[in-house]
Design goal:
Length: 342
């Protein structure tokens, strides 16, 4: 089968011919991939930024946002059957450790992260995963239309869900970055809260999309965005700032947009947040880290998606055009998410 594999850091992945995966354990599931999201994390992987954290052995198949159809199942699999349409939680988990028992399965002590940790990912024709990762979908669902919800979607949803107790009517939520993750976060805020939503982005097209998705105010990131947010919030700043960029200075601007007692949620990454400790204690502002959401959150998000309340804006590419998709993402030519379709 064809698979998009990274051979060396700082070099583009290539499409190789590799053996199809095989069932090895009773809870294994092989999925025929119908859509694989192209994520900014894939760009970070190519640059070697995850090498120290994950120590993957090269070469390996990338791709951690996947949906498709069940192709084969292990002997103990009972939650899905061959032919079912599924979206896959990106981290197959053990179900037995303390984190899993507490419903925090994204912190599972035994989890793997296909496409990131050296385990073969989903930019391929077939993917080996676990029954615990499969969320069954309505059979009319097109995997390419929802694949990116498997990571980008639940990452955005996870952050918004954590912020819900802070976003009662009359509050303001700022979204920094209306791209692949941010445009999902805007829709989650619109679906789940009564907060006023302010979106900050440097791209006019992204701001126009944000308005269509439920943003109440659009702020051009032209150097005056912190003051613009302060003006919209009576000089105080927002109760919640959701930063889907968190690099190139956005991270320090995001903290500055947060009001006293407010919370700055970091979802994007790549930058360095520099905050004097006095500024933290004197204003009681919180800095909240966010990673991929839980299996339950993916299931909840798919309810919103199948009700039409969260819709991915996508640009599709054939598997052989993986390098084109990565280039377009890196150069800002993708509004929403790029999807590879084997």
């Amino acid at each position: 089968m064809k698979a998009v594999r990274l051979h060396e850091y700082h070099q583009q992945p290539v499409v190789d011919e590799v053996a199809e995966p095989e069932i090895a354990g009773p809870h294994d599931v092989i999925v025929k991939v119908g859509g694989a999201g192209v994520c900014r994390t894939d760009l970070h992987i190519i640059l070697g930024q995850w090498d120290e954290a994950m120590s993957p052995t090269l070469p390996y198949t990338i791709g951690h946002e996947n949906a498709g159809w069940v192709h084969e199942i292990g002997s103990a699999v009972s939650n899905v059957a061959v032919g079912d349409t599924v979206i896959l939680h990106p981290t197959p988990t053990c179900g037995l450790c303390r984190a899993c028992r507490a419903g925090q399965d994204m912190h599972c002590e035994q989890s793997t992260f296909p496409g990131l940790d050296g385990t073969a990912g989903g930019m391929a024709e077939y993917l080996l995963t676990s029954a615990r990762a499969c969320v069954k979908l309505d059979p009319s669902t097109e995997p390419k239309d929802v694949a990116a919800l498997a990571d980008a979607g639940i990452t955005a949803y996870h952050a918004v869900r954590k912020a819900l107790p802070l976003l009662y009517p009359g509050t303001t939520a700022v979204v920094i970055g209306a791209g692949g993750l941010g445009h999902i976060g805007i829709q989650c805020l619109a679906a789940l809260t009564a907060a006023t939503v302010v979106v900050v982005d440097r791209n006019p097209d992204a701001l126009a999309l944000a308005g269509k998705l439920g943003a109440d105010h659009a702020v051009q990131a032209d150097g005056g965005q912190v003051d613009a947010v302060k003006d919209l919030t009576g000089g105080a700043g927002a109760e919640v700032v959701l930063d889907f960029v968190a690099e190139e200075g956005a991270e320090n601007e995001g903290f500055a947009m947060t009001r006293p007692g407010g919370s700055y949620f970091v979802i994007g990454y790549g930058g360095t947040l520099v905050v004097p400790t006095l500024d933290v204690i004197s204003t009681e502002r919180n800095i909240v880290g966010n990673i991929v959401g839980t299996y339950n959150e993916l299931a909840e998000l798919m309810v919103l998606a199948q009700a039409g309340k969260v819709t991915l804006h996508t640009k599709t590419y054939p598997l052989d055009a993986a390098q084109d998709a990565l280039h377009d993402l890196d150069t800002g030519q993708v509004r929403g998410r790029a999807i590879l379709v084997p």
